[in-house]
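Progress note, project year one: complex with pyridoxal-5'-phosphate.
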Amino acid sequence: MTLPFLPFARPTLDEETIAAVAEVLRSGWITSGPRVREFEDALTRYLGGERTVRSFTSATAGLEIALQACGIGPGDEVVVPAMTFAASANVVLRVGARPVLVDVEADTRNLDPQRLRDAITGRTRAIMPVHFAGLAADLDAIGSIARERGLRVIEDAAHAIGTRHQGRLVGSYGDLVCFSFHPNKNMTTIEGGALSFPGGAAAEVRCADLERFHGIVRNAEGELDVQIPGGKSNLSDVSACIGLAQLAKLDGFIERRHALVARYFERLHTDPAMVLPARGDAGHSWHIFAPLLPLDRLRLSRSGFVAALQARGIGAGVHYPSLAGFGAYQRLGYRTEQFPNAAHIGANTLTLPLFPGMQPADVDRVCDACAEIIEVNRL
Ligand SMILES: Cc1ncc(COP(=O)(O)O)c(C=O)c1O
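Model obtained:
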């Protein structure tokens, strides 16, 4: 019997959510409206009630708007980890500033605070830590460097809705924090993202409101003014209603991810061994499970490994190659050798299937497949 294809990620959408979507579709109001406000309020409550939340069509839009809200532009520098999704650094370029790449730690794969300190110049305006795979970056060290040097911290928490740092939810404190609700993430709105703002950030919130909807404001009579040439990245009510249903289930999804990851740690034994990701603590939200392949001891490339998994009906992903290897960043003068940890992770990482709908037997199937592929391709 052939087993069904096992993708590396799959959203969990139940019939209740599908019915809620149908209700919004029938309501006559499908773009930003009451469900968006409800979703933003629900996110505020989830984050402990003290934060202001604004939603967007993606985390990419949210991050770009966060930079704009902090007044970051040409001549400014923003520190970004060298191993992250391209969006983290692309948005810095898009506002006309320079992304200053800094290597990640070999084990956590998060921004290395020591190297961060050395990368700060007179032009640095912000630090953008990424909570890679759902494991919180060292927010204490990063926050204290930021305070010392008068810098903003824009957290790229695309992987980290539901992540805790020392028991506190990421996004419930700190400066600006941006989540993603792409279908592969811990919860989804199809496409979508949100920014969590601290109290006292009224000017930044206002800027985000203008940037996400054409710069439009209305006076008491409902007459419209366009105050800046804003963009268009407002979430729809259809997406927000999915987000509401997903948020209510988020803690359960993360619990399920923990159980599946515990089984990976128990069962993923290969010879030569794969390097398993840092386990972190109970605050890890396990957006992805990405061990490193022992490629230097195999006669198989990573794409060969992916093809071998695919032949066994198993999907895999790559998160992420070093940014320094991409054309847009090489043109800024970066070279992969400058960031050895990012280069090593980027060249060897492989994301294995992990999503709440998986069964323990699916984990076993992936572990067996990895062991077999490594066994027959050992040098
Ligand atoms: C670290 C990181 N930042 C930003 C993004 C962008 O998220 P979105 O697809 O919601 O724009 C992603 C998406 O995968 C990501 O992984």
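DSSP finds twelve helices and eleven strands in the chain.
The chain has two domains: 15-245, 250-376.
No further modelling is planned for this target in the current period.
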